[in-house]
Structures are given as C-alpha cells and as structure tokens.
C-alpha cells in the first residue's frame, strides 16, 4: 500500500507539546559556555539530524526568566492546551495515575493547500520539577518519543531543553518536514517562554538586577 503524503501533519504534532525527547536526542551542546551565553542573550537554539532510515532527532533549547516550578505548570496544563498551544483542538487526560498519565489529543494544521486533522494517544511520565517524558501509544507516527528537561541556572532562571526522536508513518519531502519542524519547535519554545515569564512566579526583580549586573561585566559573561 502506498503511504499517503501529508507534509502538513508534522506541523501540528510539534504543537502536541507534551512530547519531549529520548535521552539520545538531548542537545549535548547545552553545557558549552558559548551556547549558554547565546541562550542568556535570548536566542532560541534548534538542532535537527535525519538518518538514512528517515528517523529524525530534533532538539531545541531556550532560556526562561522563571523558576522550574512555574514552567512545569505550563507544560503540564494538558487539558488547557487548546487555549494555550497553537494547532491543538482537543486535549484530554483519560487516565491519571499520579506522575503517569495517558493523554489523547486532536490537532489540526495546514501548509499551503494541505489541511490535516489527526489524533494521538501518549503515555506521559512526570518527574517533578525537571523532567517530563512521553511515549507514543498510537497515532500517525511510527516513532515519537522524548522528554522535556528543565535545568536551573544559578538563581537567574531556567534552561529548557526539548528533544524528540520522530518517524512519521507517511511520506513527504525531507527538506519540507525538516524546515517545518525547526520553525514550529522554535515557536513552541517561545510560546512556553512567553507564558512562563508572564506568570506571577517569575524571577524576582532582585534576582533580575543581579543578572543584569553580572552579565554587563565581560568577565562574568565569559564565566556563564
């Protein structure tokens, strides 16, 4: 049977957002001082690799001026994803066993003339307040596994890394899928940053002042 071609489908899946990444897909470069400096300067960093079997490892990192606990409330607010996350039309926790949950979602997206609506079912494993992993149970992918990692940066805020190993069960030009994934992962991370920094539990003015003073000193920036 010929597999259907839906390059748009990959777009909305990236907005499922509780998807994060397998350990092998985590960005190994986040700890490098040069990239920490880029993140502290407000840049969103994205990496993507595709192997010969069309399995995609994609990861992204962003710095958020908020505490991990606040960011955690944003990325675990599953039932409200239709109101907070683009492309998600329905999101329901159908089974809740404490830190292990099963979630069903329906998303709708489109690229140019392609319009796609589809559903997924995933197992979520929460390790408060720094790791949230997921595994695909059923849906429109052969593989979709991953996790969020929240890493506090001294007292100033949090580095947030999302990564995933993905293989669609449909065919589409690789360059289209890759470009859309990079674009939509960037939008996802920046949405999380906006929601987290607008919360009442963001970094206090005193901590933000310390950060501004420290980063204005070239020697301090070099040591970040």
Q: Could you describe the 3D structure shown?
A:
The protein is an alpha+beta fold. The protein starts with 8 loop residues before the first helix and ends with a helix. The chain contains seven helices and eight strands, in the order H-H-E-E-H-H-E-E-E-E-E-E-H-H-H. The chain is globular, with a radius of gyration of 18 Å. It has an eight-stranded antiparallel sheet with strand order 1-2-8-7-6-5-4-3. About 30% of the residues lie in helices and about 40% in strands. Residues about 5-30, about 205-215 and about 220-224 have low confidence and may be disordered. It has a domain at about 50-200: Alpha-D-Glucose-1,6-Bisphosphate, Chain A, domain 4. The chain has helices at about 10-15, 35-40, 70-75, 80-85, 175-195, 205-215, 220-224; strands at about 45-50, 55-65, 90-95, 100-110, 115-125, 130-140, 140-155, 155-170. Helix 3 packs across helix 5. It comes from Prosthecochloris marina. Belongs to the ribosome association toxin RatA family.
What kind of sheet is the major sheet? 8 strands, antiparallel
Low-confidence stretches: 5-29, 203-216, 220-224
CATH superfamily of the domain at 51-199: START domain
Radius of gyration: 18 Å
Number of strands: 8
- Overall outline: globular
Query: Helix/strand/pairing class, anyone?
Result: alpha+beta
CATH topology assignment of the domain at 51-199: Alpha-D-Glucose-1,6-Bisphosphate, Chain A, domain 4
Secondary-structure element string: HHEEHHEEEEEEHHH
The average pLDDT score comes to 78
Distance between the termini: 54 Å
Work out the strand percent.
Answer: 35-45%
CATH class of the domain at 51-199: Alpha Beta
The appropriate CATH architecture of the domain at 51-199 is: 2-Layer Sandwich
Helix share, percent:
25-40%
What is the number of helices? Answer: 7
Q: Widest sheet: strand order?
A: 1-2-8-7-6-5-4-3
């Amino acid at each position: 049977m010929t597999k259907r071609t839906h390059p748009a489908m990959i777009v909305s899946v990236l907005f499922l957002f509780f998807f994060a990444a397998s350990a092998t897909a985590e960005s190994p470069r986040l700890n490098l001082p040069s990239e920490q400096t880029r993140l502290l300067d407000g840049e969103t960093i994205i990496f993507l690799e595709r192997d010969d079997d069309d399995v995609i490892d994609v990861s992204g990192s962003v710095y958020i001026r908020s505490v991990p606990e606040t960011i955690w409330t944003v990325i675990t607010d599953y039932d409200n994803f239709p109101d907070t996350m683009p492309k998600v039309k329905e999101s329901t926790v159908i089974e809740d066993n404490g830190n292990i949950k099963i979630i069903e979602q329906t998303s709708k997206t489109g690229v140019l003339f392609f319009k796609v609506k589809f559903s997924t079912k995933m197992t979520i494993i929460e390790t408060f307040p720094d790791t949230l992993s997921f595994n695909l149970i059923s849906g429109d992918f052969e593989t979709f596994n991953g996790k969020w990692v929240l890493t506090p940066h001294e007292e100033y805020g949090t580095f947030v890394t999302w990564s995933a190993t993905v293989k669609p069960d449909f065919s589409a030009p690789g360059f289209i899928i890759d470009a859309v994934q990079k674009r939509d992962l960037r939008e996802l991370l920046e949405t999380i940053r906006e929601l987290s920094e607008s919360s009442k539990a963001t970094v206090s003015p005193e901590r933000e002042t310390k950060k501004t003073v420290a980063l204005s000193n070239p020697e301090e920036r070099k040591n970040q």
